[in-house]
Amino acid sequence: MNLSMETLNKDLLAQGAKTFGIDLDEEAIESFELYLKELLKWNHKINLTAIRSEKGIVLKHYLDSLSIYPYLPECSFILDIGSGAGFPGIPLKIVQPTVELTLIDSVRKKVDFQRHVIRILGLKRVEAIHGRVQDKGILRDLEGRFDIVFSRAFSDLQTLLTLSLPFLKKAGTVIAMKGEVEDEEIRFLTGAGGIPYRLQKTAPLTLPFSSFKRTILLFEKI
User: Fold this and answer.
1) Inter-CA distances, 30 with 21, 33, 156, 163, 217, Å
2) pTM for the model
3) Fewer CB within 10 Å of terminal CB in the chain, N or C?
4) How far, in Å, CA of 142 to CA of 16, rounded?
5) For all residues of the chain together, what is the average pLDDT?
6) Secondary structure (H, E, C), the chain
Protein backbone atom coordinates (compact mmCIF):
# COMPACT_ATOMS: atom_id res chain seq x y z
CA MET A 1 0.00 0.00 0.00
CA ASN A 2 1.33 3.42 -0.96
CA LEU A 3 1.28 5.64 2.09
CA SER A 4 3.02 8.68 0.65
CA MET A 5 1.93 12.17 1.63
CA GLU A 6 -0.18 12.24 -1.56
CA THR A 7 -2.23 9.37 -0.13
CA LEU A 8 -2.41 11.16 3.19
CA ASN A 9 -3.90 14.21 1.45
CA LYS A 10 -1.23 16.56 2.68
CA ASP A 11 -3.08 19.63 1.47
CA LEU A 12 -6.26 18.66 3.31
CA LEU A 13 -4.34 18.15 6.53
CA ALA A 14 -2.24 21.30 6.23
CA GLN A 15 -5.05 23.58 5.09
CA GLY A 16 -7.50 22.11 7.59
CA ALA A 17 -5.01 22.63 10.42
CA LYS A 18 -4.65 26.29 9.43
CA THR A 19 -8.32 26.87 10.17
CA PHE A 20 -7.45 26.14 13.81
CA GLY A 21 -4.38 28.39 13.81
CA ILE A 22 -1.84 25.60 13.24
CA ASP A 23 0.99 25.78 10.70
CA LEU A 24 2.25 22.24 10.27
CA ASP A 25 5.96 21.90 9.54
CA GLU A 26 7.52 18.97 7.69
CA GLU A 27 8.38 17.17 10.92
CA ALA A 28 4.75 17.27 12.04
CA ILE A 29 3.55 16.13 8.62
CA GLU A 30 5.94 13.18 8.77
CA SER A 31 4.64 12.29 12.24
CA PHE A 32 1.05 12.29 11.02
CA GLU A 33 2.07 10.16 8.04
CA LEU A 34 3.76 7.56 10.23
CA TYR A 35 0.82 7.59 12.64
CA LEU A 36 -1.54 6.91 9.73
CA LYS A 37 0.63 4.08 8.42
CA GLU A 38 0.68 2.35 11.81
CA LEU A 39 -3.03 2.94 12.42
CA LEU A 40 -3.95 1.25 9.13
CA LYS A 41 -1.53 -1.61 9.75
CA TRP A 42 -2.81 -2.33 13.27
CA ASN A 43 -6.43 -1.87 12.22
CA HIS A 44 -6.18 -5.01 10.11
CA LYS A 45 -5.53 -7.01 13.28
CA ILE A 46 -7.55 -5.19 15.95
CA ASN A 47 -10.51 -2.85 15.71
CA LEU A 48 -8.98 0.55 16.45
CA THR A 49 -11.31 2.63 14.29
CA ALA A 50 -14.29 2.08 12.00
CA ILE A 51 -12.85 4.74 9.67
CA ARG A 52 -10.54 2.88 7.30
CA SER A 53 -9.78 5.31 4.47
CA GLU A 54 -6.80 7.66 4.56
CA LYS A 55 -8.97 10.68 3.75
CA GLY A 56 -11.50 9.72 6.41
CA ILE A 57 -8.76 9.49 9.03
CA VAL A 58 -7.41 12.92 8.07
CA LEU A 59 -10.84 14.57 8.17
CA LYS A 60 -12.63 12.73 10.98
CA HIS A 61 -9.73 11.87 13.29
CA TYR A 62 -6.83 14.26 12.70
CA LEU A 63 -8.73 17.49 12.00
CA ASP A 64 -11.41 16.66 14.54
CA SER A 65 -8.70 16.21 17.17
CA LEU A 66 -6.98 19.46 16.19
CA SER A 67 -10.23 21.43 16.50
CA ILE A 68 -9.63 21.96 20.24
CA TYR A 69 -6.05 23.21 19.78
CA PRO A 70 -7.09 26.88 20.25
CA TYR A 71 -8.17 26.09 23.83
CA LEU A 72 -4.92 24.45 25.00
CA PRO A 73 -2.36 26.52 26.95
CA GLU A 74 1.19 25.89 25.72
CA CYS A 75 2.37 24.35 28.97
CA SER A 76 -0.36 22.35 30.65
CA PHE A 77 -1.07 18.94 32.12
CA ILE A 78 -3.72 17.17 30.07
CA LEU A 79 -5.76 14.00 30.59
CA ASP A 80 -7.45 12.28 27.62
CA ILE A 81 -10.21 9.96 28.87
CA GLY A 82 -11.29 7.07 26.65
CA SER A 83 -8.48 7.83 24.21
CA GLY A 84 -9.00 4.82 21.92
CA ALA A 85 -6.44 4.92 19.11
CA GLY A 86 -4.96 8.10 20.60
CA PHE A 87 -7.54 10.69 19.60
CA PRO A 88 -7.57 13.56 20.28
CA GLY A 89 -4.50 13.43 22.54
CA ILE A 90 -1.71 12.26 20.22
CA PRO A 91 -2.49 14.62 17.29
CA LEU A 92 -2.58 17.51 19.77
CA LYS A 93 0.74 16.41 21.28
CA ILE A 94 2.30 16.38 17.80
CA VAL A 95 1.37 20.03 17.23
CA GLN A 96 1.80 21.21 20.85
CA PRO A 97 4.83 19.30 22.19
CA THR A 98 5.10 21.41 25.35
CA VAL A 99 1.99 19.89 26.94
CA GLU A 100 2.27 16.93 29.31
CA LEU A 101 -0.22 14.29 28.21
CA THR A 102 -1.78 11.28 29.93
CA LEU A 103 -4.00 8.91 27.95
CA ILE A 104 -6.38 6.44 29.59
CA ASP A 105 -8.36 3.67 27.92
CA SER A 106 -9.96 0.49 29.24
CA VAL A 107 -9.04 -1.64 26.19
CA ARG A 108 -5.58 -3.15 26.54
CA LYS A 109 -4.92 -3.52 22.78
CA LYS A 110 -5.71 0.15 22.17
CA VAL A 111 -3.30 1.19 24.92
CA ASP A 112 -0.67 -1.09 23.39
CA PHE A 113 -1.15 0.75 20.10
CA GLN A 114 -0.89 4.14 21.79
CA ARG A 115 2.39 3.13 23.44
CA HIS A 116 3.71 1.88 20.09
CA VAL A 117 2.89 5.19 18.40
CA ILE A 118 4.35 7.22 21.27
CA ARG A 119 7.57 5.24 20.95
CA ILE A 120 7.99 5.38 17.17
CA LEU A 121 7.13 9.10 17.03
CA GLY A 122 9.59 9.83 19.82
CA LEU A 123 7.00 11.75 21.84
CA LYS A 124 8.18 12.91 25.26
CA ARG A 125 6.17 13.51 28.44
CA VAL A 126 3.35 11.23 27.32
CA GLU A 127 1.94 8.33 29.32
CA ALA A 128 -0.62 5.75 28.16
CA ILE A 129 -2.47 4.00 30.99
CA HIS A 130 -4.61 0.89 30.73
CA GLY A 131 -7.62 1.12 33.03
CA ARG A 132 -10.75 3.04 33.89
CA VAL A 133 -10.90 6.48 35.45
CA GLN A 134 -13.10 4.97 38.17
CA ASP A 135 -10.29 2.63 39.29
CA LYS A 136 -9.15 3.47 42.82
CA GLY A 137 -5.47 3.21 41.94
CA ILE A 138 -5.80 5.58 39.00
CA LEU A 139 -7.80 8.04 41.10
CA ARG A 140 -5.18 7.93 43.83
CA ASP A 141 -2.24 8.43 41.47
CA LEU A 142 -3.75 11.15 39.27
CA GLU A 143 -6.06 13.07 41.60
CA GLY A 144 -5.87 16.85 41.21
CA ARG A 145 -3.05 16.71 38.69
CA PHE A 146 -4.52 18.16 35.48
CA ASP A 147 -5.21 21.60 34.07
CA ILE A 148 -7.38 20.12 31.32
CA VAL A 149 -9.40 16.93 30.91
CA PHE A 150 -10.85 16.19 27.50
CA SER A 151 -12.67 13.40 25.74
CA ARG A 152 -14.14 12.66 22.36
CA ALA A 153 -17.33 10.56 22.29
CA PHE A 154 -16.44 8.87 25.59
CA SER A 155 -19.82 9.12 27.29
CA ASP A 156 -22.75 11.40 27.92
CA LEU A 157 -21.89 14.89 29.09
CA GLN A 158 -22.98 14.45 32.71
CA THR A 159 -20.88 11.29 33.11
CA LEU A 160 -17.83 12.97 31.59
CA LEU A 161 -18.10 15.96 33.92
CA THR A 162 -18.63 13.78 36.98
CA LEU A 163 -15.71 11.46 36.22
CA SER A 164 -13.38 14.33 35.32
CA LEU A 165 -13.92 16.28 38.53
CA PRO A 166 -11.39 14.57 40.87
CA PHE A 167 -8.59 14.76 38.29
CA LEU A 168 -8.76 18.52 37.78
CA LYS A 169 -6.77 21.17 39.56
CA LYS A 170 -8.70 24.07 41.04
CA ALA A 171 -10.20 26.10 38.18
CA GLY A 172 -9.25 23.31 35.75
CA THR A 173 -11.16 22.87 32.50
CA VAL A 174 -13.11 20.03 30.91
CA ILE A 175 -13.24 20.15 27.12
CA ALA A 176 -16.10 18.03 25.80
CA MET A 177 -16.19 17.21 22.09
CA LYS A 178 -19.81 16.47 21.29
CA GLY A 179 -22.27 16.47 18.44
CA GLU A 180 -25.31 18.69 18.81
CA VAL A 181 -26.06 19.52 22.46
CA GLU A 182 -29.35 20.85 23.79
CA ASP A 183 -29.16 24.13 25.75
CA GLU A 184 -31.52 22.61 28.32
CA GLU A 185 -29.01 19.82 29.04
CA ILE A 186 -26.23 22.34 29.69
CA ARG A 187 -28.42 24.47 31.96
CA PHE A 188 -29.36 21.42 33.99
CA LEU A 189 -25.75 20.34 34.42
CA THR A 190 -24.52 23.74 35.56
CA GLY A 191 -27.62 24.77 37.50
CA ALA A 192 -28.35 24.65 41.21
CA GLY A 193 -28.86 20.90 41.16
CA GLY A 194 -25.96 20.21 38.86
CA ILE A 195 -22.28 19.51 39.37
CA PRO A 196 -19.66 22.14 40.27
CA TYR A 197 -18.75 23.60 36.90
CA ARG A 198 -19.23 26.90 35.14
CA LEU A 199 -19.80 26.84 31.38
CA GLN A 200 -16.99 28.90 29.84
CA LYS A 201 -17.69 28.52 26.15
CA THR A 202 -19.89 26.76 23.61
CA ALA A 203 -18.29 26.59 20.15
CA PRO A 204 -20.27 24.91 17.37
CA LEU A 205 -18.29 24.20 14.20
CA THR A 206 -18.24 22.22 10.98
CA LEU A 207 -14.99 20.38 10.36
CA PRO A 208 -12.99 21.57 7.34
CA PHE A 209 -13.76 19.90 4.01
CA SER A 210 -16.68 17.93 5.42
CA SER A 211 -20.24 18.29 6.68
CA PHE A 212 -19.39 16.81 10.10
CA LYS A 213 -20.77 19.07 12.84
CA ARG A 214 -19.14 19.31 16.24
CA THR A 215 -19.88 21.25 19.42
CA ILE A 216 -16.93 22.03 21.69
CA LEU A 217 -17.91 22.76 25.29
CA LEU A 218 -15.56 24.19 27.89
CA PHE A 219 -16.46 23.83 31.58
CA GLU A 220 -14.44 25.36 34.43
CA LYS A 221 -14.28 23.54 37.75
CA ILE A 222 -15.58 25.76 40.56
Assistant:
1) 19, 5, 35, 35, 31
2) 0.92
3) N
4) 34
5) 90
6) CCCCCCCCCHHHHHHHHHCCCCCCCHHHHHHHHHHHHHHHHHHCCCCCCCCCCHHHHHHHHHHHHHCCHHHCCCCCEEEEECCCCCCCHHHHHHHCCCCEEEEEECCHHHHHHHHHHHHHHCCCCEEEEECCCCCHHHHHHHCCCEEEEEEECCCCHHHHHHHHHHHEEEEEEEEEEECCCCHHHHHHHHCCCCCCEEEEEEEEEECCCCCCEEEEEEEEEC
1 pLDDT higher than 50: no
**For the segment 11-21, what is each residue's pLDDT rounded down to a tens digit?**
899 999 999 99
b (16+ CB within 10 A) / e for 72-105: beeebbbbbbbbbbbbbbbbbbbbbeebbbbbbb
Q: What's the CA gap between 201 and 217, in Å, rounded?
A: 6
The domain segmentation of the chain, as residue ranges, is 66-221
pLDDT, tens digit, 9 for 90 and up, residues 21-76? 999 999 999 999 999 999 999 998 888 988 888 888 999 999 999 999 999 998 89
pLDDT in tens, 125-150: 999 999 999 999 999 999 999 999 99
